[in-house]
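[09:14] KT: can someone run the structure on this one? pasting the chain below
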Amino acid sequence: MTPEHETAPRTTATAAAGRPAPPGLVRRATADDAAEVAWLAALTFPLACPPGTLPADMAAHIAHKLTPAHFRTWVTSPEHALIVHDDGDRLLGYALLVRGAPGSAAEIEAIHAATGCEAPYVELSKIYVHPDVLGGGVAAALMRGAVDAAAELGAGLPFWLATNKANARAQAFYRKSGFEAVGERTNRVGDQDHHDLVLLRTRP
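[09:31] RB: done, structure tokens below
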């Protein structure tokens, strides 16, 4: 994402099939959003962790990887796109995309086997919604924004993500959004290994 996107006009969230669009706008984040996005990340990350994840490990992950400084950097990075759902009073969700090579051989092998394409790919690294509005259409609006942002980061590049194998709700949402499982990976949080599915978007 280039710096000029920081002040790009907001776009109105469109309606999901069979459901009115939630109030608010999906837009690119700016540096001024960094503190609020970091607060939202700290709230939502533990809710997505599998049962048994140690509180100390979650706290360390938040403290070292989800700070306002991280989000300010991602706002201005040409390899990242940070989008938010803004209802005018507060941010209800956010998504982060990154263009590049995946961090593990398992991810690269799974995506290459499914697509025949070499990296770079576009990863949907994070997509989180405030717990107060789960099921209200915010995640769907963010996903539509993420699909558009992925095309801006790299039109035609494979678009992928990873989610915990135990998170059935997330998997159902991603399948509905056009993703399918193409492999697995191990993701370490603190001293614990988490087992994830690697999913690739194969249809609209």
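[09:33] KT: thanks! The beta strands are 11-12, 25-28, 80-86, 91-100, 121-129, 159-164, 179-189, 192-201.
[09:34] RB: yep, looked fine to me
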